[in-house]
Structures are given as C-alpha cells and as structure tokens.
Amino acid sequence: MRRLLVALALLASFLPTSRAQTSPEFKAVIERSIDSVYMVGVVRRNGTGPEVFQFVGTAWVIAEGKLATNAHVAESLLEASIGNRIVARRSWSDRDELALSPGSIRIHPAYVPWNARLKRVIVRHDSDPTAARSMNFIPIADVATVEVAAGETAPPLVLSDPSKSQPGLSESVVYLGFPYENISGFPTLHAVPGYITAKTDFFFQRVPWKDSYLIHYCGPVVGGASGSPILNAAGEVIGLISAAENNLSVNGERTSFGFAYGQRVDLARELLQDDFAAVQAARDAVWCERLAGLLLPPDELLEQMASAQAQQDGIAHLEPGQRVLRKEVTVAQREPTRIPVTVEAGQRYGFLAAAHDGSNIDTQVTIKADGSVLGSDVAPDYFPVIWLGPYDTKQTVQLEIHASEVLLRDTQCSVHVYRYEPQLITGTLQDESGPFFTRSISWTGETGQTLSWRFAASPESSVMFSATSTDGYDIDLAVFLDGEILGSDETPDNVPIVIVTAPHAGVLELQLRVPAGTPEGAAIEVNALHFSGPKPALLREGEDVGAEHSAAELSAMLDEALAAVWNTAGVTGTTVLEDVVALTDGIEFQIDVPAGHLPVLAAVAPNGEDIDMALVLDGEVIAIDQEEDARPLCATDPADVPRKLTVRVMYAAPDVTIPQVAIRYCTVKVK
Hints:
This protein is elongated. It is built from 9 helices and 41 strands. The strands form 9 sheets. A 6-stranded antiparallel β-barrel has the order 1-2-3-9-5-4. By secondary structure, the protein is an alpha+beta fold. A hairpin with an 8-residue loop joins strand 4 and strand 5 (98-100). The chain has 4 domains: 20-292, Beta Barrel (Thrombin, subunit H); 298-420, Jelly Rolls, CATH 2.60.120; 437-545, Jelly Rolls (Sandwich); 551-669, Jelly Rolls (Sandwich). The longest helix is centred in the middle third of the chain and has 19 residues, at 276-294.
C-alpha cells in the first residue's frame, strides 16, 4: 500500500495544477460573479397538476436586463415557449425567478446560415492525398441574448476588451455554470477551472487574435454547461462554453474527456448593437475565402464523385474524352444559371456542380423543348449530382443551377458533365420488359431507419439493384447474401447502384439506407433488374428459402383442393392437365369443356405470394377467385353445349414477380 501511495504522489507531482483552484484572485472573481449566472429553462403545466421546471442550459447577465447564452440553448427555449413560460433561476428550487421574453431572443446572424453550410464539407484526407473525407465543425457563432421581462438581475459581468488583452496558451480560466449531464442530484452552480489550449478561427486555422473567435478549452464540460461564461483572472468574460468532445458509451451516454470549445465573447457583445447584422455581413466575405481554401478543390471533388459512379456502372476508369463539359459559372441569388447540353441516345450522363465557397446550391435537368423535369438534386449541400439515362433518342436538355439559401455573395461554381455507355455487367439482360421488382416509397422521416427486402437467390443469379431519390437527397444501398456483404454504394448522391452475382444459393437482402435529416415525404424508387442466371424470388416477411414446395408437394396440394370442389359438387372426375409455369406478366390459356361437364381449376404460388384466377367466356368473366391467398380455385356450372373457356392467372400485386406457378385443371361429367 505504501508503494502505491508513493507512486500516486509521484504521478500527481507531474500532473498540471490549476492556478484557478488555488489563486486568491480567482476566489474573489468567483465570489463577485456567481450571482450573475443563472440556469434557464421552461416552466410547463402538467395538466391540472403542479408546474414542472425543465432545465435547458446556463445564461448570465451581459447587460442590464439582458442575459447571454448559446444560440442552441435559445433555440430550445424558443421552441418550448408556446403555451409555457421561459425563466431564469439561480437554483432548481428557486421561486424568485426571472421571466424571460421569447420575442426578445436575438440569435447571432451567422449561426443559422453558416452552420447549415458546414454540415457537409469535403476536405482532402489527412493520410491519403488522393482521397477525400468529410469534416465536422464546432457550431459557428453559437451565441444569443434574451431580455428579462420581469424580475431584477444581478449586475452585468465585465466583458474583456480584445484590443487590450488576449488569453495566453495554458492560461488558467474558470467557467461558472450548471453542468448536469450524468452528474448526481439537481443542477447546481459549479465553478470549474481549466486552461486555454488554443485560439483559432471557426475553421481551426491559427489566425491573429482579432479573428480568433473559437477558444479551445481543457476542462470537464458536460450537458447543462452550455452558455456558461469563461472568466479570466481579472474577472472578465472572454467567452461562452458551447461544445465539448465526448466519448459515447455502449448505452448511449456521453462522457467528456476534457477538450471543449468556447465562443469568444465579442460575438455576444455584437448582439447588444442595433447594427449587429451589418457587422457580420462584413465578416462573411473573409469567412467564405477561408472556407474555400479548406475545401477539396471543386474539380477534384467532381472527378472523384464521377469516377465512383462510373465504377458502379462498370467503367473502371473515366477517359478524358468522357467529360464532355467543364465550365465555371456564377450563381446569383435570384435567377438560376442555365447550361444547355445535347444528350446522345444510349449514353448515361452525369451532371455535377460544386460551389467554390460551400454555398448550398441545387440543380435540376429539364427537357429544353417543354421544360419537363428529368431529374433534380435538392439535398442540403454544395455539390449537387444528377445521373440520367441512357435514353432512346437524342435530345437537348438544360442544366439549371440555383441557390437554395440566402447567398452571402454571388458564388462561383464548377460544372462537369460526363457521358459514357454503361457496361453494367457481362451477360444478357433477361428483363427486357423492365425491373422484376420495384417499390415506390414516401419516406417517413424517421432517423436512422433502414428498409430491407429479401430474395431467394440461386447460384450465378446476377442482379442490378438501384434506387433513385427523385427529390435529390443522398441515399445508399447495400446487398447481403446470408448476412455477408456482397456490395454497396455509399457514394454521396441520389442514385445508388449495386450489381451482384450470388456465388451460391441463399437469401439476398437489399437494404435502403437514408441519412438522418431527410425530410418526411421524400419520394424514393427502388428497382431490381435481372441479368443472368435464375431470377431471385421475393420472400415475404418471415419466409425462408426453404418455404418453396417441391413438385410432389404442389401436386398433393392441388389434389386436395380439387377433391374439395368435387365433393361439394357431388361429382367425380379425372385430371387432364398438369403444368408448372413461370408467371411474369400473367398467364392466359384456353381449355375445351365438353357439353355437360364441370370445369375445375386450381393454382398454387409456391412462395406464398397472392395470385388470382378468372374464367372468361366470350369476353365475360364467369368465375373468379380474388381471395388474398396463394391457392385460387375456380369452377363453373356445366352447360348443354361444348365451350371454349379462357383461363387467366394473375399476381395480385403488380410489382411482384412469381418465380413459378403450378396449375392443374380437369373437366368432370356431372351425374
């Protein structure tokens, strides 16, 4: 035990100690600042019961009658304010609360447009200069103010003057707030010491202090601390706690590992001025240039996306001549930029664009003659992609590029158009009439939802699965065989394609994956084309490949069904036809029924799909079975004269193909 204590003592001697924990200056700072820091939240009425306080975050007095906090805290307060009260308290049980005015909330003008812009930023990969990766940013300008409608606040905290001083690296600071996530008890005001570890702009670049609006902080930060003031040893607010790096446990709980971020207080100070929007407008141009310098160069980005799609279409490498257009255009706020393109028959075309400064732009392709829309991409990003064709005829189309947000300035865009003849798979397309499986989906908007379909596959079954988001949202496909991945397309586009060949018999599972944030009602089409080998059969939910029946089992099922009909009719007879056929677009054939005979027919779909049967005489249906089952039966009364009847067997769902159907019929002379 003694050796353990010595070891711990030695270890502690090497760990940094916080001057904020021991400095008398910080003790005085905390004492004179603590009353100006509040928890903010929503008071809800629980039916006819007592009111319930819901804690949201931390705020502090920035000016007389005004509190400062994070923009994401203010958004939560604003959303919950309808029918409820938003308040500030010094403690959980404090009844001497401040009433806050929802209508007075000011969110920094850079917060919404810039964070929407940075949701999907593609930069060069750190370890592979030929590859790209997405990048996460700390929310920009995450600050807001709210006015006190009733109640008296403590004095405002003192704000630092960036022209006179700036925090140094490793400088001790302290934040005052209500960290609460995974902490026992009720939210309690804490004075939490820490260090400044870096000062950068919002793009993680070292820049002069006047442009360093992101403070990097080392210290424990958890949910509830959002909006807390960060104080230096002089008692001045230098920033607001806004985000932290966290580990995520297996049960979904977040744990801070010490690195956090603060918004420089100057951003909140701007909201006290009437011209705060103009101040940010002057800053936007600088930020646009800095972001443009970080992005993967637009030509490289478009080339990588085009190559990824071409590989899905069987093109190993795009040749220089397959890019038929490369152009730079200017996109303004009001009018779309239009580019005419002539598309040749039998060719697949890719229309790709990228905004140089990350502005959110959308595209659509229309037929120039009549304006009909062939495709669009309205996903919230700066690199819309549309893949179309092949088409049967040559025609002129028009690519339209337009802004889908309020532009900070006219934006420069690179445009590429690619053309090639897709080499989807070696072999002959078996489904010349079109897909053997298709589904039209209206997305429910549920986060993280995956839709899947299962097929019974035979060895050497080759299939192309594809999906299209007609609204242009990013979607992905993955195909598994007995749980093992066969292929996937996770390219950031709205037209994923996966081509697979089953190496052995088993269950193919097609998964459609839609990223979080896709709006409810987004339209998606899913298709499957059969190329070679046996055609896979759609399996119903819970059904296994082994559910298909052998020919002997089918015969026994049909005998049982026919016997039931004969017994009901009080007759006996003999089967005169037995056949097992493929049912694609339906089966139609004719039978001769002698005078005085009763025709009886039965069919079975071995994979359990719903099929229907009808008997037709001279164009009129005289018997039909449309029950929801896989075993339709039809019979009619005997006639005094011979008849030629038409038999029709159809699948009930037009988007389901039955791999095989057993049909038997007989004519029985009535006693």
